[in-house]
Every structure is written in C-alpha cells, then in structure tokens.
Amino acid sequence: MQLSREQLLKAYRQMKTIREFEDRLHEEIPKGLIPGFTHLYSGQEAIAVGVCENLNDSDAITSTHRGHGHCIAKGCDVKGMMAEIYGRATGLCGGKGGSMHIADLSKGMLGANGIVGGGPPLAMGASIAFRNRGKGEVAVALAGDGSCNSGPVFEAMNMAVMMSLPVIFVFENNGYSEQTAPAYAVGAGKTDMVRRAEGFGMPASKADGTDFFAVYEMTREAVERARTGGGPTALEFTCLRYFGHFEGDAQKYRAKGEVEMARETMDCLKNFRKRVTDAKLLENAEMDQVDAEVLKLIDEAVAEAIAAPFPPDSDVTKNVYINY
Amino acid sequence: MAIKTYREAITEALMIEMDRDERVIIMGEDVAGGAGGSSGVRDNQSGIFGTYPQFHARYGENRFIDTPISEAAIVGAAAGAALAGLRPVVEIMFADFIGYCLDQIMNQAAKFRYMFGGTSRTPMVLRTAYGAGLSAAAQHSQAIYPIITHIPGIKVAVPSKPADVKGLMLTAIRDDDPVVFFDHKALFGVQGEVPEGDTAIPFGKGMRYREGKDATVVAIGRMVHFSEAVVDKLAKEGGITCDVIDPRTTSPLDEDIILASVQKTGRLIIVDESPPRCSVAGDISAMVAMKGFEFLDAPIQMVTSAHSPVPFAPNLERAYLPSGAKIEEAIRKSVDF
Ligand SMILES: Cc1ncc(C[n+]2csc(CCOP(=O)(O)OP(=O)(O)O)c2C)c(N)n1
Ligand SMILES: [Mg+2]
Fold first, then answer.
1. Is residue A304 part of a domain?
2. B183 and B213 housed in the same domain
3. Which of A114, A288, B111, B334 has the least C-beta neighbours within 10 A?
4. pLDDT per residue of chain A (324 residues) written in tens, 0 to 9
C-alpha cells in the first residue's frame, strides 16, 4: 500500500463526486432541462479514479461518450461540467459541446468523444508529442469494450508499439456496448481485449475495475513503464454500468436483478470504504464528512447551472473559420 | 389510405423486400437488440430507431445480423456481399459515423460497376439517420448528404414523408447500384398516409407538396415540413402562394420538376439543412442558374444551416438551423425583389 491518507481521501472524494454527479443527473434528466443524450458512469468510478490518480495535469487522457467520470477524475471543474451539460454559457465549452464533448485542455482532458473509438488514436498522437518533448508525460486512452472492435483503435495500438510510445490503452469492460455484450461482439468470447493487445506486441493485463486498489496498482506499473521509455500497455478493467446505455434506455437486454446484485456485491465505493476502514487507514466519520461536502457541491453545481444564462445566439459562428 | 408513421413506413418496405427476396439481408449495430445480454432477450428495442420489430425472430440470425462497432467492416461487408449476389441493407446508426466507412462507400461500392467496365453490380443500401434538432451536438447531428451526393456511382435518397420513405426504400433495395438512404432522426414519428402494398417510387422523381404562383420553394428532408408550414401560413395570410417541391432523391436529381416550377413562378428559394458550402442548395442554385436563367425574376435565395459544426445548447442549435422565420424572410426577399 503506497497511498498516503491524503491520497486515499482524495480518491474517495473523486469517486464519490462522480457517483453523486451521475446519480443527480439521473434524477434531473427526467425534469427536462438537460438537452441531448446523456450517458452515465455510475458503477465505473474506480476505473477513472484509479487511473487518473496516477496522472498529473500535464499528462493527457482521451475519453468517450460516457465521459463525466473521466473528466472529474482528471480534475475538470464540476460546476463548469454541470453548466456544460445544461448547455449554458458558463459551461466548460461555453455550451457548444454538452455532455458528450466536455473538455479541459489545461487539465490534460482532451475531450469526451461522441465517436466510439475516436479517442485512442488521439491519445496515441498526444504521446508522440510527449515522447518528443522528453519530459516523461504519458497519454491514456479510456475506451469502452465496444470500442475495441473499431479499426482505428487497432491501428493506434499498432502504431504505439511501432514507435514504443508512452500511451496506455484502458478498456473499461462494463458488460455492454449499448445492448451488445462482449461475449458476442469481442470475437464471440474466444478472445478478449488483453489477448488482442498482446497480439499487437504490448504488455496487457486485466483486473477487477470495481477495486480501486487493483486499478491503481496496475495503472501505476503501466504509467511507470511509459514514463521511463518502456512503451505502451493495454489494460482491461471489468465492471457493470448501473444505469442504461443512455438515460431513457429500457434495458430489456439485461436480466432482472443484474444491477441490484452489482450494487450489492461489487460496488466500488462500498468496497473502498470497507477496505480502508478494515485496514484502519481512514475512518467512516471522515468519509461521511466528504459525502456531505460532495452533496453540497453537486447541489450548488445544479443550482448554478440552472441559474446560468444560455450562450448568445451569435456564438453559433464563433470559433469556426469562415471566409465567404 | 392508412395513416402511418415514417418509422412504420420504413418497416413496411423492409418487410416487403425481406419477405419477397431471400437475398436481402440486414446488418448493423444493435439492430437485433444486441446479443449476449444477460436477459437473453433479442429484438428488445427493434433497433435503435425502432424500425425492425421482431425481425430477428422472423428472419433469423443469417439474414438479420447484429454487428460489433465496426463501421468500415460493416459497409465493406455490404459491398462484398453485394458483389457476391446478396442485396444487403446495412445501418450506420448516425450519419456522422460515415466518417469511419467513407472509403467503403467512396472507393469501393461507388466504383465497382464503372471501374470493372460494367461487369459488376453492387446492390446495397446504407441506411443512416442524420440531422440536427435533438441537441445531439457536433458528432451526432450533421446533415452530410451533400458529401455523398458528390460521389459519382452512389444514389442518394433524403425523403420527408412516410409514403415516400416506403416507396423509395423499395426502389433502393431493388436498385442494382449502391444507395445511401438518409432519414432525418426527427422524422421517425411523423405521420402521413401510406398506400398499401408494393408502391415503389422511382428515384429522380420529385414531388410538389404545395402549389402556388409567386415563388418556388425547393426543400430537402425535414426542411420540407418547415417550408410547408411557412408556405401555408403565407397562403392563409393572403398575398403570397408558393410551390413546395421535394426532390426526394438528391442523386439522381429531378431537374425538370424544379425548372418547370421556376419557369412558372420566376423565383427560387432553396431550404437545405446542411451548411451552405458545396451543398445540395448550392448545386440546385447552379443548375437553375445554368438551365433556367431566363426564368428568374429575382436572385436565388438559399436558406441553410450556419457554416459551423452543430452546437449543443438548444438556442444555439435553433440559431444554427433554418427556421420558419428565416424561410419566410427569404421568400419575402425574393417576392419583393
Ligand atoms: C463510431 C460510432 N459507432 C457507433 C456509435 C453509437 N454508440 C454510441 S456508444 C456505443 C456503445 C459503446 O460501447 P462501449 O465502447 O462498450 O462503451 P460504453 O457505452 O459501454 O461506455 C455505440 C454503438 C458511436 N457513437 N460511434
Ligand atoms: Mg461497454
């Protein structure tokens, strides 16, 4: 166990913030003030946080359509995110992007991404910049199980090996890509993401993505390797998403009780609490205190987002080159 | 005639062809409701846009195929299967994802018949949902039919009405050339009269949905509905009446119906959801300027989206899109010229 009390408490706060952020959106979306499609990350928090606690602002991540957790874990401002999701001028992207396109380059967050498989080539490209800069920075592509069937992801993995780049390909296997399970779509279950990545010539391993410590440790090794010129790594973390693919998904493809069972037996927050209290690393009271602070932050974020103005209509043609 | 939704009209056409012709197959992501889920339930959502009710049960695994997220291979597979004798219909869920499979459309399917000296046929249909209006933001909202219309060798349908989507889909599946078929995602729930049975509509034949004498409004896809509303309002207010023409396919394009109308009215307004540069609106403008110059009593007006990516915030998205107000302004500008 290498983490200090402060680090543990921060990890807990990050995971809790993601959970409350997403659970609150789940309540807010039916009220009709949040435009567009929203994909929630609840159940997967230990992956975003376990990965990003190994990174600095100067390291980069790419994300997916299910990006809120990645953004929070990488340090994006929670209020700016909430305002963006409400399409307000005060949002991190000025209301231009919304849930699927939250970005904060100053935090090394290169964008949530509406295109499945869009992120890994970008992360690989960022790692070329890092290699050439020579300061030991790394790029991490956070991607879903579904994205591992996308050609550009394979191409990015091969190029990363070819150039021995400081990039890590993280596949979050949350049991589904929309309605399709990896047991069908990923080689009919005859292979998995780890074996595929090994086939490209990089070390790869797999861990329980609901176990913060397992994710943290496995990522730590990969980051270490990348920072010291050892080249790319692929990691697969298993978990289950608690909500539908998007808010509004009827989820008939899922067995009754699947989510309840996961919430009961493999919840990353519950497991974390038990681990750190059993080991007497943190006390329940201090985590309860964090819980209260997080709830307050989310309350404020929602209230401030709703009170914020929409961007002016003239913003439509701002930040795009027009010459006619 | 029965009133049906646009969605039901698509289903009807697909079923007519699936029932009639063993060579027709359908492939796409989650078309059969995904496979391998813990409930084991297939057909659970009839596809993302609800167009395939019980298709898995009815047509089985070999003809109704759930694919991984592999757009390039899906469309390549359709082109290859077409060369080998099938008549595939493939779904690329959102038109924006055509980015991943443009090669298979542009360099493969579009080229075979010509490049192989007329020795091959590529009977495939790529179905895809396009368009803004749902705050789906920059990567899930684009109207990219002009990009595909640009490619020789591909036919392109962009219908607006339930009856048209049925008739054009029947023709698309029976056509020996590759067809990219664009459905606006805000139109699936729109209702209209749909004739029973085999009602194939030829490509390259537009339809006049309103008749008037003062101006010609040519509109594409969802913009037909926007334009009808404005034209009805102007007619009701008295004063201005317009033809509303829906070309229904952008390739081939029914030039005659547009030119005949402009000859009558002397004025042309084109309403097109895609951005203005190299657009279908620009293409129709050029065609009328070349072939109908002497008919025109006023400059051609184009009402398009902004030359920008599609923004997320609802007010920005409204400002981005053509609107009733912008269409009315363009009509008045033309008539008052
Ligand atoms: C190129 C592309 N194809 C299809 C989609 C539609 N789509 C959005 S999310 C998704 C499933 C992604 O599954 P996965 O990678 O496992 O991520 P998860 O949703 O589980 O987080 C699909 C098919 C898309 N956005 N982009
Ligand atoms: Mg997944």
1. yes
2. no
3. A288
4. 589 999 999 999 999 999 999 999 999 999 999 999 999 999 999 999 999 999 999 999 999 999 999 999 999 999 999 999 999 999 999 999 999 999 999 999 999 999 999 999 999 999 999 999 999 999 999 999 999 999 999 999 999 999 999 999 999 999 999 999 999 999 999 999 999 999 999 999 999 999 999 999 999 999 999 999 999 999 999 999 999 999 999 999 999 999 999 999 999 999 999 999 999 999 999 999 999 999 999 999 999 999 999 999 999 999 999 887
Starting from the CA of residue B68, give the closest ligand.
Answer: 1
Task: Answer whether residue B201 is part of any domain.
Answer: no
Regarding pTM above 0.95, the answer is: yes
In this structure, what token pair is assigned to residue B189?
Answer: 């729930």
Q: Ligand 2 centroid to A58 CA: how many Å?
A: 28
Q: Quick check: B221 and B160 in contact, CB under 8 A?
A: yes
Question: Minimal Cα–Cα distance from B96 to chain A, Å?
Answer: 9
CATH number at residue B11: 3.40.50.970
B328: containing domain: 207-335
Q: Distance between CA atoms of A135 and A182, rounded to whole angstroms? A: 37
Beta bridge partners of A199: none
Which positions in chain B touch A322 (Cβ < 8 Å)? 307-308
Q: What spacing in Å lies between the alpha carbon of B25 and ligand 1's midpoint?
A: 23
Residues B134, B17, single domain; the answer is yes
Among B138, B166, B194, residue at a domain's last position: B194
Instruction: Look up the ipTM and state it.
Output: 0.96
Residue B234 host element (H or E): helix B223-237
What is the nearest CA distance from A16 to chain B, expressed in angstroms?
28
- Chain B hits for A253, CB-CB cut-off 8 Å, are 33-34, 37-39, 41, 44
What residues of B are in contact with residue A67 (Cβ under 8 Å)?
Answer: none
Distance A245 CA to ligand 2 centre (A): 8
Looking at the domain assignment, is residue B284 inside a domain? yes
Q: How many CB atoms lie within 10 A of CB B276?
A: 18
> Is B2 within 8 Å of chain A by CB?
no
Q: What's the rounded Cα separation, in Å, for the pair B262 and A257?
A: 63
Both B88 and B214 in a single domain?
A: no
**Last residue of some domain: B161, B194, B227?**
B194
Can you tell me which residue has the tokens 């401030």?
A: A304
Phi, psi of A35 (to 5 degrees): -75, 160
Tokens of A267: 């919840």
CATH code of residue B249: 3.40.50.920
The total number of structural domains in chain A stands at 1
Q: Per the CB < 8 Å rule, is A146 touching B68?
A: yes
In a domain, B202, yes or no: no
CATH number of the domain where residue A253 is located: 3.40.50.970
Q: Which residues contact B163 (CB under 8 A, 6 or more apart)?
A: B9, B192, B193, B194, B195, B199
